[in-house]
Design brief:
Helix content is 26%, strand content 29%. It is α+β, with helices and mostly antiparallel strands. It has one domain: Nucleoside Triphosphate Pyrophosphohydrolase (Alpha-Beta Complex). The strands form 2 sheets. Strands 1, 2, 3, 4, 5, 6, 7 and 8 form an 8-stranded mixed beta sheet that branches. A two-stranded antiparallel ribbon has the order 9-10. Strand 9 (170-176) and strand 10 form a beta hairpin. The longest helix is centred in the C-terminal third of the chain and has 14 residues, at 195-208. The radius of gyration is 16 Å and the shape is globular. The two termini are 13 Å apart.
Length: 211
Amino acid sequence: MSSDEFFRRARERLSFDVPAGLTDASILAPTGDFGTDAMLQIIAKERPVRPAAVLVPIVERELPTVLLTKRAEHLNEHAGQISFPGGKIDATDASPLNAALREADEEIGLKPSFIDPVGYLDVYATSFGFRILPTLARVRPGFELTISRDEVDDVFEVPLAFLMDPGNHKLGHKEFRGMQRSFYEMPFEERYIWGATAGMLRALYERIYLA
């Protein structure tokens, strides 16, 4: 799929309507995996909802790439994992989009002037109680990044074509309270992309590439 076709479909299929499931613990979109669905239902009853927003930045190069970060090793949650720029939605954020743009600037110095937001994907719930709303965005090349070492160890790009190839979407398995649940893995070179990040990339694939 060409870059123009990818973004044409994205603009047709995405919007900036905020899903109720971002803040309503009673609303959980089924994942299709029994173990994961059961886990999320349990987590929703045991932990307060933690609304968050991330930017899914597609860099408009000759061959488009996805900009990803490696979280700092000293963090208390998800240390060293591959992530999108983003974080919790603050009370001062006008919208999840504003939260994603703010976090991208704070974490890696990606300025809003280079970012063309396209729309929201579906809410992605995690075992930590986060409800993450991903914002797909087209990013103009030419930006210079400044990494906040308090939050991020590294920033890198992965070809969009690799991440959108279902042949690169592997399934891993974990146990949660006696139930097996699955999660996506997308290893790329020395980078291990998995969990929520891989899950949101898979959701992007299903929303844009599948009819």
